[in-house]
């Protein structure tokens, strides 16, 4: 337990230092949004792509991981529906429960924390779990919410496809798996550039 606390302590030091600076120094209110956009749209996607592109990927070897995580997420959705029916929640509260019951910070905070604890060798596995999670959230999760509000199947399908195709984290996973599966070796200068960006992800997040 003490070893884990020692490993993740630097993360909390950065968090509290940032909060202290924001409170006692006039550093502006716009920088959190800028860093947040960088993390979600550039930093984490680059980190995920870099990790997966360096690791040979095999669907047969990862089948159990994919199946277990998919089953867990789908059962979580089902549990939220059952709980909502039992408690007879109003529509807005039920939809909030439905998405929040499953929603977790697996990418934004999960990857930095796991990297600190397990090292960079955990990145391919963590990135795959993020991909599984994002896929079900942006298909079953978002489509259920959209359909509950709009009742328009065509609009729901269009929105799901848009969310999937525009999600930088999911795009990074797909490209990384393709590169890893085909055993394509990226030029060293590209790899060094990717490593420089990935080094900034944890403190930025």
Give a description of the structure:
This protein is mainly alpha-helical. The chain has one domain (2-204). It has helices at residues 2-24, 31-54, 59-87, 91-100, 110-118, 123-150, 153-166, 168-181, 188-198, 201-204. Helix 2 (31-54) crosses helix 6 (123-150) and helix 2 (31-54) packs parallel to helix 8.
Rg value: 19 Å
Helix content: over 70%
Shape: globular
Tally of domains: 1
Poorly predicted spans: none
Mean pLDDT: 82
N- to C-terminal distance: 24 Å
Summarize the structure.
Helix content is 81%, strand content 0%. The protein contains 10 helices and no strands.
Layout of strands and helices, then pairs:
Blueprint: H1 2-24, H2 31-54, H3 59-87, H4 91-100, H5 110-118, H6 123-150, H7 153-166, H8 168-181, H9 188-198, H10 201-204
Helix pairs in contact: 2-6, 2-8, 2-9, 3-4, 3-6, 6-7, 6-8
Distinctive features:
10 helices; 205 residues; mainly alpha; 81% helix
């Amino acid at each position: 337990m003490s070893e884990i606390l020692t490993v993740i302590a630097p993360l909390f030091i950065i968090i509290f230092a940032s909060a202290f600076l924001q409170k006692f120094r006039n550093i502006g209110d716009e920088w959190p949004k800028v860093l947040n956009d960088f993390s979600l749209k550039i930093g984490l996607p680059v980190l995920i792509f870099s990790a997966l592109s360096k690791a040979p990927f095999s669907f047969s070897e990862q089948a159990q991981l994919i199946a277990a995580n998919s089953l867990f997420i789908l059962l979580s959705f089902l549990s939220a529906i059952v709980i909502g029916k039992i408690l007879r929640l109003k529509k807005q509260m039920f939809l909030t429960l439905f998405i929040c019951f499953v929603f977790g910070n697996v990418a934004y905070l999960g990857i930095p924390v796991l990297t600190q604890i397990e090292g960079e060798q955990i990145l391919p596995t963590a990135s795959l779990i993020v991909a599984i999670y994002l896929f079900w959230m942006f298909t079953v999760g978002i489509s259920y919410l959209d359909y509950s509000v709009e009742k328009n199947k065509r609009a729901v399908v269009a929105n799901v496809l848009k969310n999937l195709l525009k999600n930088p984290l999911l795009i990074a996973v797909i490209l990384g798996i393709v590169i890893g599966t085909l055993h394509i070796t990226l030029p060293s200068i590209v790899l060094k550039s990717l490593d420089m960006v990935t080094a900034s992800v944890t403190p930025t997040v």
